[in-house]
């Protein structure tokens, strides 16, 4: 086709072609290398107090709008809390950095981390993990805890906190929209993205690499404790199976819908 063009047209075609390629390469570099590096740099400079206040107000807001007190019986709650503290201790993590919150959230299976180091785990998630233990290995105690699977989920969230994913992700997304809005001249998207759920940890769709990193963190710590990441594989498998069944009536399962699919995650762990 180029042969039918005049010399001048051919020059223009080449200029346009190379401009598009250059823009594509720059865009790719911006997204995959400049933004993550800049986000990490900025996130490190943000004072602790900001993390604290964003995390606290996010939880307050969620308590007002989405959550109610956990309906797990007190013995189970105590057992989970005790085991969480023990986990932090066994792994020599800083106990002041993490706080566990149990909440009821209309049957939704979910766990997520907030910027202040809070980790929220919902009743439905605990119940589903415990149910599989009950059916697979009958237990004397009424409050049998699937300790390892619960630890696996908590460790994934601890991984998000240790790697500072929530703040870095929020900054990364904001920088992306700021760059895009500067290019396209529409600044309104920036305020929208900052106000919406990304800072709350709830509606967040972390990018694939951050999820892989959190899974890898959990897998490494489980291997330290038990010699293998089997508990994470079990937890993921149970939750995905459960969500597939529940999806028929209720499609919105947050923890799972915001995480990459099971095969990809299992592949990442092995
Ligand atoms: Zn995650």
From TrEMBL:
Positions of transmembrane segments: 12-31
Biological processes annotated in GO: proteolysis involved in protein catabolic process
Domain Peptidase M48: residue ranges: 77-269
CC per GO annotation: membrane
Cofactor note: Binds 1 zinc ion per subunit.
Keywords, ordered alphabetically: Hydrolase, Membrane, Metal-binding, Metalloprotease, Protease, Transmembrane, Transmembrane helix, Zinc
GO MF entries: metal ion binding; metalloendopeptidase activity
Reported cofactor(s): Zn(2+)
Homology family: Belongs to the peptidase M48 family.
Protein name per UniProt: M48 family metallopeptidase
